[in-house]
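fyi for ur records
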Amino acid sequence: MDRRDFFKTSLMGAGALAVASGPLGLVRGCAPSAPVKSQTPLHLSFQLGTAVGESLAEKMDYMESLGIEGFEPGGGYLLEHFDEIANEIKNRDIKVSAICAGFDGFILAEDGQKQEFDTSMREIVEAAGKLGSTGVIMVPAFNGQQPCMPHTQATRDYLCEQLHELGEFALKCGTTVILEPLNRAEAFYLRLVSDAAAICRDSKSKGVKCMGDFWHMKEETSDYAAFMSAGTEYLQHVHIASRGNRKMPGEDGALDNYVDGMRALKEMGYDKYISFECGSIGDRSVTVPAAVELLRTQWEQA
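which gave:
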């Protein structure tokens, strides 16, 4: 054996001896740990039009039969049927989740529509708080709403100031306001969950939150990253629909995969609602239970 072979053999032997004689914990510490299965439960919610039934009572009965825990009414329906809703949820395992808009005007209006928004939004927020709702969903401006403030830094600063006031009012009422990002076909101003979370932060009010909508999240590069960008500090609600035609989850086949986003929700310990906001191509008595089962299956997979 020449010197080169001698030293090579000696070094290999020394390395093997070091591994063999080292603490077992050191070796194990280099191996990837087994994934920890999240125990975060899935809380599903229906809007009024999702459930099968004619009256609110029939719809509530149907929701209970599927184990649905949340009810998301529109703001106008909430004000018109406040007592009925309050009575229906009194002795049920269903709570009011978020309130889906329903106000007049919009917050970035440059005319009297801003005053209409201020008045009607506060009415809905106050009613939402009385029923223990998680918050009232709002969009700063839809594409077709005019006259609207321009998309500038000054407008964003103004929005944060207005949201601070509204958020503080919501906190006094025991609820929140929830910013919803939309796809670019519907709203120019707010399209990404991360943008909404940043506005929540800059509003400097714990009463200002945001949400994600699996349908609108086609704007995102990653469902997982989108939800993680908001985290539990800001994420207050989630909407879901099929990912091709905005119908019942499952009606667009393989497109309707929500596992990536659900994995983020489970990892962050999201304890709010995933609420159906969609129509249906088929018979609701068939498509709705199938959609519920699909979501529960994918939640387990996540």
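The beta strands are 44-47, 70-72, 95-96, 98-100, 135-138, 177-179, 208-213, 235-240, 274-276. thats all i got for now
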